[in-house]
Specification:
The protein contains 13 helices and 17 strands. With 420 residues, the protein is an alpha/beta fold. It has 2 domains: 109 residues, Urease, subunit C, domain 1 (Roll), CATH 2.30.40.10; 304 residues, Metal-dependent hydrolases (TIM Barrel, Alpha-Beta Barrel), CATH 3.20.20. A hairpin with a 2-residue loop joins β16 and β17. It is globular and about 65 Å long. It binds guanine (GUN) and fe (iii) ion. Fe (iii) ion (FE) binds next to β5. GO terms for molecular function: guanine deaminase activity; zinc ion binding. Its cofactor is Zn(2+). It comes from Lachnoanaerobaculum saburreum F0468. One of its GO terms (biological process) is guanine metabolic process.
Length: 420
């Protein structure tokens, strides 16, 4: 099959690449060849062509951090900082997912919305409930999206109706992982200790063992000042928050790397360890604004060669649109430069576009670029209303990246399969 349109992506050197009126030749799930419209070899003339004419075709985006059960209250309760927000809004909502009827209704809404977004790949927290987590994974598998999903672990400092004993947590995690084996093609389990305050030392060490060389691990790191202080008290043996995870065997080398959300208060030593342990940072700018968490030192991460993608962090962030997160990251980086560190050059549009596409996509393999050999994840976008009267395609693209909410999604492909 051949898909035709204006191709927009990012090169491996981080520049925005625009190829007008081009053809993507798909073979199974992968981009096999790309040709200019007038250079298509005649041998392909009988191939089925889907012509999107003047539409813009972008790579699928990766959301590196979000909470599926929190989708139901996004945009509500944005008046607190992290720890109060968790106790007041989040834990009571997550407790409801013990009820499978509730979970089914809420997760149906979530999966439908994620399907309609620009996201093709996501790394997701569920709740501590094994059955509801499996339900969510079944729905995501059916949607055609490709996701890592974690049954959350939490055995301390929670409410009575949202807590497991250490043994229950380990047992349910093992059962869940066994259940997932051979059940899914495109949905992958990921080990998910909520954060250090929610997980005893013993639980973290057990999860590190379960992770072994086989699974990825996701969690939260250095998000909020009170949280960071609390972790210091909980882990007096450790030099810092990430070091506490490390000392509890959570960061060992595995087939899939570790993803840590936030990293707002990571100091030099923590950054070094992030790099050493090949940890992926999920930068969540909208969440960091909404919970008054702070501004992550993203320029420093990039300068140190730490991989950084974006997370919507629903429901601390309110929008599933990763283009919006990318633009907010530029804004925050400008404030960081103005108020905190004059040596920290603000992020540029091409950089955040790369982070949202090929940098974050690399967690899934060759994903996030319109390039030969990459899995064919694409969003086809109609920007006619937004860009009425603008002919210069560079301007159309720049404007789209900022105002993507005002465009319509004509089609979306994940690994070559059209899902909308
Ligand atoms: N830290 C621990 N749990 C959470 C959560 O659900 N959301 C955010 N933003 N931070 C957390
Ligand atoms: Fe989060």
């Amino acid at each position: 099959m051949i898909i035709k349109g204006n191709l927009i992506d990012c090169t491996d050197t981080g520049t925005i690449r625009i190829r007008e009126k081009s053809c993507i030749l798909l073979k199974d799930k992968v981009i096999f060849k790309i040709y200019q419209e007038n250079m298509l070899p005649s041998s392909y003339k009988d191939e089925k062509i889907v012509d999107y004419k003047d539409a813009l075709i972008f790579p699928g985006l990766t959301d590196m951090h979000l909470h599926a059960p929190q989708f139901s209250f996004r945009g509500l309760g944005m008046d607190m900082e992290l720890l109060d927000w968790l106790n007041t809004y989040t834990f009571p909502e997550e407790a409801k997912y013990k009820d499978m009827d509730y979970a089914k209704k809420a997760y149906t809404r979530f999966v439908n919305s994620l399907k309609k977004s620009f996201t093709t790949r996501a790394i997701i927290f569920a709740t501590l409930h094994k059955d509801a987590t499996i339900l969510l994974m079944d729905m995501l598998e059916k949607s055609g999206l490709r996701c890592f999903v974690g049954k959350v672990n939490m055995d301390r400092n929670s409410t009575e109706n949202l807590i497991e004993s250490t043994e229950e947590s380990v047992g349910a995690t093992n059962e869940w992982l066994n259940f997932c084996k051979n059940r899914y093609k495109n949905t992958y389990p990921i080990i998910t200790p909520r954060f250090i305050p929610s997980c005893s030392d013993k639980l973290l060490k057990e999860l590190g063992k379960i992770r072994g060389c086989e699974y990825g691990l996701q969690s939260h790191l250095s998000e909020n000042p009170k949280e960071v202080e609390w972790v210091k008290e909980l882990c007096p043996d450790s030099k810092g928050y990430l070091d506490a995870y490390d000392k509890r065997d959570c960061l060992n080398q595995s087939r899939f790397s570790t993803v840590m959300a936030h990293c707002v208060y990571s100091d030099e030593a923590e950054m070094k360890l992030l790099k050493e342990r090949d940890v992926f940072v999920a930068h969540c700018p909208q969440s960091n604004i909404c919970l008054s968490s702070g501004i992550a030192p993203v320029r420093k991460f990039i300068d140190m060669g730490i991989k950084v993608g974006f997370g919507s962090d629903i429901a601390a962030g309110y929008s599933l649109n990763i283009f919006n997160q990318a633009v907010e990251a530029i804004g925050l980086s400008k404030l960081y430069w103005r108020y905190i560190d004059k040596n920290s050059r603000p992020l540029e549009l091409a950089e955040v576009f790369a982070m949202a596409t090929r940098v974050a996509g690399s967690y899934f393999g060759k994903v996030g670029a319109l390039e030969e050999g990459f899995e064919a994840d694409m969003s086809v976008v109609d920007d006619r209303v937004l860009n009425d009267g603008i002919d210069d395609i560079k301007k159309r693209v720049e404007r789209f990246l900022y105002l993507s909410d005002e465009c319509s999604l004509l089609a979306k492909y994940v690994a070559g399969e059209q899902i909308i």
